[in-house]
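so the lab meeting is tmrw and i was supposed to have these ready like two days ago... anyway. pasting both below. for each one the top line is the aa sequence and the line under it is the structure tokens. i havent really looked at them closely yet so no promises
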Amino acid sequence: MSNSVEVVTPVARIVGGHPMVSNPVIDDKTRQPKMQQDGVTPRTDTYIGLAIPKGAETDWRQTEWGAKIAEVAIRDWPGGQSTMPGFAWKITDGDSQVPNQKGIAPASREGYPGHWIVNAKTEWGVQCFHVGKYDPIEQITDPKAIKPGDFVRVLLDVKGNGSTQTSGIYINPKKLELHQAGPLIVLDGGTSAADAFGGVGVVQQPQQQAIASGPTTPATGFANGPAPGMAGPAPAGPAPIEVRRIHPDGTAYTEAQLKAASWPDAQIAALPIAQ
């Protein structure tokens, strides 16, 4: 299995979840909590939805952070799966008008328009720090110090998911820097993780080491400031044949559009194919 790659986001806004709150992992089919390997301890995960402002790029892969994520997908899925519809990128266009399985279009959600939405989750906790205060003893311990709507930078751990059912990538948050407070975003009862990931699991990560004090590099920390400017466009892959399906609202969308709007594969397959 390939090694993961660390990516530091630009300053982004928290538009879903909370970096210091864990929630039960629910089985999509049974709607019951999933258990750890011992069969008795419930599994939990932590989810963060990050809204990264768009620039001059027309695709998130044209940004520096996006190009790094795309490179991981190409490396871990050398068969070209990342160019096909349905690849689980965990990244959504915040301006998309395509409704998810609950009938909610990304563009209708607070904080989404004008942004790329990165959906990250982990089964381990996320270490959180204020800007410039990276010593382990300065780690944020009060969840109330961070809220949806705040502006942050996040150290992400990215790798292929190795799935035999849905090819894609894992985007796991490791460390968070609270950049500044922002207007509160009232979330919808903590269902964002299920909407974002459609039941796809998360890679198991070893317990993360505490951030060492002092200056760090962009690959491992935050002290050197935001990442540089945009990278060039990623190489274009072969154009896939796009299957269009009829949404319950009567509109025909491609399977890729529905997947980007967080529709699970099973629900996409149940929709009628547009002629």
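ok protien two:
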Amino acid sequence: MKKTNLKTVTGEKSFPAFIAILLTASALSPSLANAHGDSMHDHGDNPVLTKVMFDQLELRDQDGEHSSVIDAQAWIGKDLHKFWLKVDDEKYGGKTQDAEVQALYSRAIAPYWDLQLGLRRDIKPEPKNNWGVIGVQGLAPYFFDLNAALFIGDSGRTAARFSAEYDLLFTQRLILSPEIEFNFYGQNDSERITGSGLSDINAGLRLRYEIYRELAPYIGINWERKFGSTADFARTSGENISDTEWVLGLRAWF
């Protein structure tokens, strides 16, 4: 398979390029399944499957200033073993401000829980960083969707991320989804405006209407806050340490 050029993926046209990557992964799945037809015939209860998920495909507004966000994932594999591609991209004024890509191998370790190992590439802001990744994700009791990951970079750099999401059903179609994400760093990095300890919290509340389970427009609000040395770096750079934005978006999977 031709290697994807990450600079192309995260350039000025990164938004459609990300979508193209995920759609390509989905399109390749039938051919991959056919290539393993004999194996699937012998093990029909464990076929090769794929899924592409756009968790957040949204526009944000804060005091008339607009940004766009894509948070998407795709996987291909069987019940126990999968390959994941995770993409996060955020634009302000039509230019990418934050972007990262993760390529992960996932192994089921318990019902509803996966261990994930792989690589993370930070592309924006500069300078670019590479990390090794070890993490777990799964469904906790009471249907909390949890994701925790440890990142290890060069020169002893470390980072960690924890996120949680919950679906509150008003009806079978109308669903309120609160979510929260914490980011931690082991060292100060003034170039990327991140400080050691708790760096930032991102919390959101989104109300979606599932036209189909696979397609759901939503509205909501998103709040971000920087802490500690990260907040100090932001103030020095003339950036806000707290933002609240209205969001309008689409959640879809296939």
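from a quick look at the 2nd one: The domain at 6-253 is CATH 2.40.160.40 (Porin). DSSP finds four helices and 13 strands in the chain. will dig more after coffe
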